């Protein structure tokens, strides 16, 4: 057992308040010269991640796959695709990561497999073979149409007709990604066995793709229409509430089976992706107590634009579902436009400072620490089936998946300049290269390192309780939370107004109103301490008034009895 594993054995909850770093392996580092990132490339760059100050890496799928959805269509759950390397390469990655104090979390795509998986190949042969019921099959309606109105994420019906069985099979995503039938006990056990395989190999946990899509409504009831505010033009499935093909009650029981398995491996953890029409209640339910997932995330913050009212609303809705749920908050990942484009490139550090102030674990996406904005690609450059199917209204996910830029030249040090990478390097990213930012003390990269170190050393920020400050007691555009435990409190504020524009004046916050007068008139033993935040000017505090300019954040350590509870 490595020193890292021994540490986790003693501290089972190392994940609570930890910072994860997502690696999209196709785009991280190409070591074998084929224009696609690989495991050997990740190993080459692990030292960089260790110096960044993250606790764990999450690696997107590297399993054997025909790559119709770039690894999220698995054809062998227990092997590495040759594109990325071998199992031996992967065990070397685990060993090196543990030497550096990094946990290794890998994707698990349990809800569906590739249509090239041996299970599905057997299942589709007949209605009475050993795997006949391992996938979701249904007879046509009397007129030959699909069994119900369910739609696939990438457009079109969620059903494809198979002439061998004269039945439709369910696929919530691509037709080449048939959904497994989790109502079948052998399916559930088979996937638990696949998880055990990787735990035995030494991984520290799993990120569960589409964790609320394991079970479907057996009656195949039609989904109802969604409300207008949920609908996204150009995205047909958003016109439905995903009521019957996701979030079924049986999901909770299976998550408890997964947790029981993970508990056999001290320190092993889990983070679930929860999508759908109303994900926050599911996210809370999936992480409630000690018997389901350790952490989960939704797309609510992943779609945020840095609006203070909207940010408060997301966190308030989550808080309504109980204090024992544990989120893993993120602003960027491989499925959404980059946060530096949504929030604004001039607010990249502000966004991460806000993220670091929140209760929960955090996840950064590769390039986020460098300030990468969303890449613009032409239709001819697209690889993502989502974007190809729904262009031009939906541009797909390739814009956030372009290669990392390690050096300021043609292919960014991701691969040799003589090669054609699988996606083009975004030229504006070259000026944000790691090598340039490493040498610049005031770079975003170095500020993020300091920020993560600051949070990692602060128990209050990592695991303390959280009270939201109501927008009604804050100036317009200001977001705030109070982090607290039995010994101290910290008020975290951020002026999310834009530094450019017609309304870019500083705001004045009356701390007397927010904290009460006892602190400000010397009746408490400890004065307010203003934490020095990396890359941020220190706000001015005079006579109980805090001056906060647009784009500025402030963390104030206040005496434990000085802060009144604020309405969340």
UniProtKB/TrEMBL annotation:
<comment type="similarity">
    <text>Belongs to the glycosyl hydrolase 13 family.</text>
</comment>
<dbReference type="Pfam" id="PF00128">
    <property type="entry name" value="Alpha-amylase"/>
</dbReference>
<dbReference type="InterPro" id="IPR006047">
    <property type="entry name" value="GH13_cat_dom"/>
</dbReference>
<protein>
    <submittedName>
        <fullName>Alpha-amylase family glycosyl hydrolase</fullName>
    </submittedName>
</protein>
<dbReference type="InterPro" id="IPR017853">
    <property type="entry name" value="GH"/>
</dbReference>
<dbReference type="GO" id="GO:0016787">
    <property type="term" value="F:hydrolase activity"/>
</dbReference>
<keyword id="KW-0378">Hydrolase</keyword>
<dbReference type="InterPro" id="IPR045857">
    <property type="entry name" value="O16G_dom_2"/>
</dbReference>
<feature type="domain" description="Glycosyl hydrolase family 13 catalytic">
    <location>
        <begin position="22"/>
        <end position="401"/>
    </location>
</feature>
């Amino acid at each position: 057992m490595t020193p890292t594993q021994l540490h986790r054995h003693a501290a089972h909850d190392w994940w609570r308040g930890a910072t994860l770093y997502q690696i999209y392996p196709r785009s991280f580092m190409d070591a074998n010269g084929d224009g696609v990132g690989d495991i050997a490339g990740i190993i080459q760059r692990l030292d960089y991640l260790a110096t960044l100050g993250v606790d764990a890496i999450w690696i997107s799928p590297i399993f054997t796959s025909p790559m119709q959805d770039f690894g999220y269509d698995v054809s062998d759950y227990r092997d590495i695709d040759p594109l990325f390397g071998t199992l031996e390469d992967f065990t070397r990655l685990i060993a090196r990561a543990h030497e550096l104090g990094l946990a290794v979390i890998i994707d698990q795509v349990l809800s569906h497999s590739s249509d090239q998986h041996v299970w599905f190949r057997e299942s589709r042969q007949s209605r009475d073979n050993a795997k006949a019921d391992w996938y979701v099959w249904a007879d046509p309606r009397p007129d030959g149409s699909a069994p119900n109105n369910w739609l696939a994420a990438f457009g079109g019906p969620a059903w494809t007709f198979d002439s061998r069985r004269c039945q439709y099979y369910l696929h919530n995503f691509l037709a080449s990604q048939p959904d497994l039938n989790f109502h079948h006990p052998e399916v559930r056990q088979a996937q638990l066995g696949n998880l055990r395989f990787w735990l035995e190999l030494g991984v520290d946990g799993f990120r569960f793709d589409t964790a609320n899509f394991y079970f479907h409504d057996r009656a195949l009831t039609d989904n109802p229409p969604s409300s207008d505010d949920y609908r996204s033009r150009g995205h047909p499935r958003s016109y439905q509430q995903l009521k019957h093909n996701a979030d079924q009650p049986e999901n909770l029981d299976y998550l408890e089976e997964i947790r029981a398995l993970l508990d056999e491996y001290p320190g092993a953890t889990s983070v679930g992706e929860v999508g759908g029409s109303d994900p926050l209640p599911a996210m809370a339910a999936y992480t409630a107590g000690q018997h389901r997932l350790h952490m989960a995330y939704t797309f609510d913050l992943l779609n945020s634009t840095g609006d203070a009212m909207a940010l408060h609303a997301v966190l308030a809705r989550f808080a309504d579902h109980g204090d024992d749920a544990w989120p893993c908050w993120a602003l960027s990942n491989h499925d959404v436009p980059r946060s530096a484009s949504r929030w604004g490139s001039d607010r990249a550090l502000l966004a991460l400072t806000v993220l670091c102030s929140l209760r929960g674990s955090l996840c950064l996406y590769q390039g986020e620490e460098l300030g990468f904005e969303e890449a613009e690609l032409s239709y001819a450059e697209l690889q993502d089936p989502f974007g190809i199917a729904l262009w031009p209204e939906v541009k797909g996910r390739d814009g956030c998946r372009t290669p990392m830029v390690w050096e300021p030249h043609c292919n960014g040090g991701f691969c040799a300049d003589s090669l054609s990478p699988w996606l083009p390097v975004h030229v504006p990213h070259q000026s944000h290269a790691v090598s340039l930012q490493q040498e610049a003390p005031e770079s975003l990269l170095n500020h993020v390192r300091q920020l993560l170190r600051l949070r990692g050393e602060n128990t209050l920020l990592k695991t303390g309780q959280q009270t939201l400050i109501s927008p009604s007691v804050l100036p317009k555009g200001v977001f705030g939370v109070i982090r607290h435990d039995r010994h101290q409190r910290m008020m975290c504020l951020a002026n999310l107004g834009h530094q450019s524009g017609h309304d870019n004046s500083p705001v004045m916050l009356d701390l007397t109103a927010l904290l009460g007068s006892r602190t400000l008139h010397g009746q408490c033993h400890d004065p307010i301490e203003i934490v020095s935040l990396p890359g941020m000017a220190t706000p001015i505090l005079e006579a109980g008034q805090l001056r906060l300019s647009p784009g500025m954040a402030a963390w104030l350590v206040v005496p434990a009895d000085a802060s009144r509870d604020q309405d969340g």
